[in-house]
Amino acid sequence: MAMALLDQIRSIFDGDPGVRKVADDPVLSAELLMLFRMILADGSVSESEMVAFRRICKEAFGIPETSIDSVIEYLNDFGYETNGSQAIALFRDLDVERRKLLAQHMAEIAKADSKLAENEVRLLRRTLDLLDISPVDVVKPQE
């Protein structure tokens, strides 16, 4: 309880820890922007897509649930400065597993609302081409 209070006080002075994490990591910022673009690709934001985005933020990137709304606000405020090609360029030099992870997260969001819109498929296909990833690599192995 005392630690939670200290974290809240610190966030007032230092800013939100999740936003700091995203702001300090250009690759993470780029990935979240690409995920957000996938959410918007079909022209609407579904609750299931946002649930998938929030889960990915929390589980894959360790962004606290309490920070996700602030992270989304940060991306809205500063994301206009980065277009999709610039975001993808940050991934080209990363190892293939990290590039596959981006593609898997994008596919997960695209499928979250149980409908694959043509624009979502196009965005995913273009991203796979730019990342030099095969569509087969997007399918997660069964665990």
From TrEMBL:
InterPro entries: DjlA_N (IPR007791), TerB-like (IPR029024)
Domain of life of the source: Bacteria
Domain named Co-chaperone DjlA N-terminal: residues: 33-138
Pfam families with a match to the protein in the record: TerB
UniProt-recorded name of the protein: TerB family tellurite resistance protein
Source taxonomy: Bacteria, Pseudomonadati, Pseudomonadota, Alphaproteobacteria, Hyphomicrobiales
